[in-house]
Design brief:
elongated; Arc Repressor Mutant, subunit A; Tetracycline Repressor, domain 2
């Protein structure tokens, strides 16, 4: 029996997005034709254009779909956790978790920004900047409170983000570390980089009651 029309309407954009992510990750944005995406998604060109006005619009949609959940989770973590140490540890763990569990979309989102220009690029950059700002504010507040020792908060923030983003290129679930262990290890590394300390004692992830990395992530 055919699916209800509403179910088809919801499923088709997901299939198109999934096909585009796979092809962009393999061939790059410019190496992927719009017909290639339609063929892999099993839809007609007219259906693809109905849901996404152009290949550029599809890439923007992928980037927003990939980044917006991280921004929401970052905002929630910032509001719910009361110290810079807890906030930074959770930001790191969320970022690492998402870059492993949504690996291809994150790779496309992180690398294919170069394919965009004009208003489309500006929108994506604004979202990224707002996400980065949560991290930078957390680091700056830690410095102001005397719990982080960082001379260049902006540069350190960029370095932390790059470190956490790179897991999408190398982490293998079949390896020595489980994903939760990886997240906790990176949180420890990030706290060490900002030289987090209280009362002369380094702060470690085990000292912080922040819950699991998925606490603020909506599936």
């Amino acid at each position: 029996m055919p699916r209800p029309r509403a179910a088809d309407a919801a499923e088709t954009p997901r299939r198109i997005r999934s096909a585009a992510i796979s092809l962009f990750a393999e061939r790059g944005f410019h190496g992927t034709g719009i017909r290639d995406i339609a063929t892999q998604a099993g839809v007609t060109l007219s259906s693809l254009y109905h849901h996404f006005g152009s290949k550029d619009d599809l890439l923007v949609d992928i980037m927003f779909t990939s980044t917006a959940p991280l921004k929401r989770a970052a905002d929630q973590a910032y509001q719910a956790l009361e110290t810079p140490c807890r906030r930074l540890a959770m930001l790191i763990e969320q970022h690492v978790w998402e870059h492993v569990t949504d690996r291809l979309a994150k790779i496309v989102s992180d690398t294919e920004i170069r394919a965009l220009s004009g208003e489309r690029r500006d929108r994506v950059v604004a979202l990224r900047d707002s996400y980065e700002n949560v991290w930078r504010t957390t680091v700056e507040e830690g410095v102001a409170e005397g719990v982080f020792t960082v001379s260049q908060p902006k540069a350190l923030t960029i370095g932390l983000l790059e470190m956490c983003t790179a897991v999408s290129h190398w982490f293998q679930p079949s390896g020595d570390l489980t994903l939760p262990e990886l997240c906790h290890s990176y949180a420890d590394g990030g706290l060490a980089l900002v030289r987090a300390a209280r009362g002369g004692r380094p702060v470690r992830r085990v000292d912080l009651e922040i819950g699991e990395p998925t606490r603020f992530l909506v599936s």
